[in-house]
Structures are given as C-alpha cells and as structure tokens.
Amino acid sequence: MPDLFENDRNYVLGDPELNTIGDRAKLAQWRHKMKGPAYYKLGRKVVYRGSDLNAWAEAQRIDPAHQGQC
Prior knowledge:
Blueprint lengths: L9 E3 L11 H9 L7 E3 L2 E5 H10 L11
Antiparallel strand pairs: 1-3, 2-3
C-alpha cells in the first residue's frame, strides 16, 4: 500500500489529512494515554512527522489471512 502521508511533511492539528487516523479529540486522548503515533510538542503546538504517521499506520495493519497462524 502506498504511504497515507507524505514522509517529508510535517502535520499540525487542524490539518485535514490527520482526520484519516482520528479527529482532534481522539488524537488528544492518545497523547494523554501515551498511545498513537509519535509527535513533537513544541510549546503548545503538536507536530506529527509524515514518516512517523506512516510507520504507526503500518504497525496497525491487520491481515486477516494471517490471523491465528502463530
């Protein structure tokens, strides 16, 4: 699958592309619970790197063909 996000781009809260993985409230919950994609906290601004978002999305991939074959 091609990357969901541009690897060399930074995304900030409010960018519509972030809605692919969750709305602003969901992203805030994940940050509070130390879950979700890696991010930078620069003052009050939250910044996500595209490469981190793609890595996190790939880690969430579920392949039903390989479920239960351990």
